[in-house]
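Researcher: We are triaging several targets before committing to wet-lab work. For this one, the compound of interest is zinc ion. I'm pasting the protein sequence and the ligand SMILES. What I need is the predicted three-dimensional arrangement of the protein with the ligand bound, expressed as structure tokens, so it can go straight into our comparison scripts without reformatting.
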Amino acid sequence: MTESEPQRPNCRQTPQRVGLLGIYHETNTFIESATTLADFQNGYWLETSRIRDEYQGANHEISGLIEVIDGAPDMELVPIFYAMATPGGLITRDCYLALLDRMMQLLDEAGPLDACLVAPHGAGVAEGYPDMDGHWLSLLRQKLGVGVPIIGTLDPHANVSQAMIDATDGLIAYATNPHIDQKQTGIEAARLLVNTLRGEVSPVQLLVKPPVAISIEQQFTSNQPCLGLYALAQELEQRFALVSMSVLLGFPYADVHEMGSGFIVIADRNQSPAAISQAEEAASILSAFLMEHKQAFNGKKSGVQAVLRDFENHPEPVLLLDMGDNIGGGAPGDSTLILEHLETGGFSDFFICLYDPESVAQCGEAKVGADVSLFLGGKRGLKTRVEVLALYDGHFTEDAPRHGGFVHYDMGPTAVVRTMGGNTVMLTSRRTPPYSLRQLTALGLDPHSFRGIIAKGVNAPIAAYGDVCPSIVQVDTPGVTQADMTLFEYKNRRAPLFPFEESV
Ligand SMILES: [Zn+2]
């Protein structure tokens, strides 16, 4: 790690120089395999101007950050470093230190900054650094000094720590799940930074962590109980004239002290000397609401057999959400459990995408039109004969506002096959979360031609498939992202914490 003297905020030259950086990862600590440097290199490793190349104009928070600073004649954006990997297991120590080292090196090379925009996820865990985001943000604060505003965005799945709050002047989380307001959140954060630099706002922020962990099953913000929680947050923001009131849904699959819900309230000291007490009052009202409705945030959990028994009652195509194999929560995306139930139950004309590089290679050798015998999905997967329908390079793009805000997708070599049972399976060489309908349409597949689409997610795929699928059913399946968090063994979580302890 690079060590050097903290830079003093230098004189306020015009234009004011605003840095932009972030390390972004949602870490599932219940996964055996680690997240390594290769995962970031295969994900997003963007230095200086490449950040702008990738995200300018995208539906992503960085796009919003860029847009606002570009539009401020007295500011200059200095893109520094942004690294992101698909959600996965614990980040190795070597990987984290390499990321940090490179970020600090580029920060040195960027020269003096008047402010810094940051884009962490907020649920990153590295080996030896359980609060990874709190750690790198604290180092950034040390380096820039207390007079340099650090403001940024968070994913609402962040398990926010006090260290993240202490190191920054303002963090604003996306207010939707699926996350379709990422760009808007970037715009809000960058406006706060601009107004802070101009002396028009003096932000003060507060973190409150109610003793409740919200089930992933109940984190869809267009439905209750989230609707009520977010509506109250918005109402309180106006009632107390707050700068921002963020709801953190939390990420249940990280065995860290901060796991669970939280609220970040930002108030303006310029508006009222009592800003912090107003923030406290607003947060306590929101906390009381969550505590009162905590049972509703626990979920109902329907297994695959129950879902298929009831299948005829749903208008088609039905979106079946495989909660236990949620790629966006770090799962492998290779479980064939639902497919096996479909095949043995005589259900045909379904679509499923599986991460399975070995089967892709076998299909590639066999060529289109051939029959091959495959072990689909994970090593304990489904052995079956399939017909190879098509082979692709696996690239497609998305330009609509979708969860994750990604533009360029790379699934690696990809095969589409049909099983003996009449179901269509897409096999990819890279884990690809189901955030874009283009995953099907770009490869010539018509989503309307299926009775059901199985997506490896819980809420995020709804932004992609909601318009196509009139029925959406969450399926409680086993795995490293299973809906019932009480089935995991936590050593480091807070206690008492609902639903682990009923009396909180
Ligand atoms: Zn998220």
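Researcher: Any quick observations?
Model: Residues 1-12 have pLDDT under 50 and may be disordered.
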